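User: I'm putting together notes for a lab meeting next week and I want to include a structural view of one of the chains we've been expressing. I don't have a solved structure, so I'd like a prediction I can at least talk through. The sequence is below, exactly as it appears in our construct file.
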Amino acid sequence: MSKRLHNLSKFNLPTVNESLVILFILAVGLIALNLPKPAKNHIVGEQKHYTQKPSAVINKPAVTTGKPPKVNVTPSNNPVPPIVGGLAPVISTIPTQEPVVFLGIDDGANKQQFELTMMQQNNIKASLFLANIFIKDNPQFFAQFQTEGSIIENHSLNHLIPFNHLSYSEQVSEICGQADLEQQEFGVRPTLFRPPGGSYNVDTQRAAATCGMKAVVLWIAKANGGSMQYQIGKGLRPGDIVLMHFRPEFQSDLQAFINAQNAAGLHTELLENWLK
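Assistant: Thanks for the context. Below is the predicted structure for the 276-residue chain, given as structure tokens.
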């Protein structure tokens, strides 16, 4: 044992303090090896300085929820539903949140000049669904409305009710016959058909399409007897199609309609402009 210690004494072994210093240096080195490397772009103030040229920035599309973006409906992008299987579509309202409402005035039995004057004074243009049985004694009365911007549309030749009890060929005769007469009388062929009494079936849709009608037009609200009648709710809504008639109570009916549209914050536009 003494011999081994004698041999070790030949080496210059570090003292205890020197050993502590060596251990400290080794520990610092190990810590330095485990520190995270500095980022390659260093921010100075508001600017970034890159040690390497950055790659081009790619703008990714926004993530969607699967629903289409909400778009305000306007006449230019709200086409009439297509004719499918030879059947004209049936409409009673236009899907929109814009503050518009549409007026259709039917028949043509009552003809008084104040009707046109009242519409002019209130800046109202309407779709006039006329039937020959009511207008044949004075069709030019309605040409005045056409001159002021209203549009003549189709309500059949003889206003037969219930219209859907007629055969297909009889309905074609009623619809095409009225379209031919209106084209001859007013210079423009109608594109919309309203069945008398609102009664229709598949034959009506097919006959309307055969006669060149874009749609069968019903209604969701009605001005009648000096008051408004609603199928849904208690007031007019954006896109509603309203029914009225050329009757002795025209003045009170139109006033009821005007009051209702004003109360709802709406204004009247032509249905045809929204069915391109």
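A couple of points you could mention at the meeting. Confidence is low (pLDDT under 50) at residues 1-11, 35-73. Residues 50 and 56 are 13 Å apart (CA to CA).

User: Perfect, that's what I needed.
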